[in-house]
């Protein structure tokens, strides 16, 4: 399933962000989905519920934001927000338009839990796990 791999890489990204900020708990994640991305937000949500287990995002809340489809007219330059997939300029009615927004799936924001006093044991465990993974991989 397409959404599964997207959510998996999303969680990898989120975990890296949390790690870089010295946090081990994510409270909120916000993603943007464009109408042309072909992504079902309900599938993203169900994949997220399954895949977040065991990650720092296990108790976090996922918000899927739908961004509008925007095209730019190749003739007059006007940007039009399309509502019904009618690929036409709102200004000059030209059919020569280029999609400038709508094909995306990306991470928008990550909210980390209030950072607790540093836990060196936790950080050490993560570091050694990463090293071991690299060693077995090569
Ligand atoms: Zn135009």
- Structural class assignment: alpha+beta
Average of per-residue pLDDT values: 85
Task: Compute the separation of the termini in Å.
Answer: 28 Å
The major β-sheet equals: 3 strands, mixed
- Percent in strands: 25-35%
The arrangement of helices and strands along the chain is HEHEEEEEH
Indicate how many domains the architecture comprises.
2
Q: What is the strand arrangement across the widest sheet?
A: 2-1-6
Bound small molecules, which ones?
A: zinc ion
Would you give the CATH topology of the largest domain?
hypothetical protein PF0899 fold
The helix content, as a percent range, equals 25-40%
Radius of gyration: 20 Å
Using DSSP, what is the number of strands? 6
Number of helices: 3
Quick rundown:
By secondary structure, the chain is α+β, with helices and mostly antiparallel strands.
Give the SSE map.
Blueprint lengths: L1 H19 L5 E8 L7 H11 L9 E6 L2 E5 L5 E4 L14 E5 L3 E8 L7 H18 L1
Parallel strand pairs: 1-2
Antiparallel strand pairs: 1-6, 3-4, 3-5
The structure holds zinc ion.
What attributes does this structure have?
2 domains; 138 residues; three-stranded mixed beta sheet; binds zinc ion; elongated; alpha+beta; disordered C terminus; hypothetical protein PF0899 fold
């Amino acid at each position: 399933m397409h959404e599964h791999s997207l959510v998996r890489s999303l969680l990898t990204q989120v975990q890296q962000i949390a790690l870089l900020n010295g946090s081990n708990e994510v409270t909120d994640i916000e993603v943007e989905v464009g109408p042309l991305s072909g992504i079902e937000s309900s599938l993203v949500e169900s994949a997220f519920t399954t895949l977040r287990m065991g990650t720092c995002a296990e108790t976090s809340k996922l918000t899927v934001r739908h961004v509008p489809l925007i095209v730019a007219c190749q003739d007059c330059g006007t940007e039009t927000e399309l509502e019904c997939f009618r690929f036409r300029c709102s200004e000059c009615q030209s059919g020569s338009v280029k999609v400038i927004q709508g094909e995306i799936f990306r991470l928008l924001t990550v909210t980390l839990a209030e950072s607790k006093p540093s836990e060196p044991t936790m950080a050490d465990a993560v570091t050694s796990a990463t090293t071991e993974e690299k060693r077995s991989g090569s």
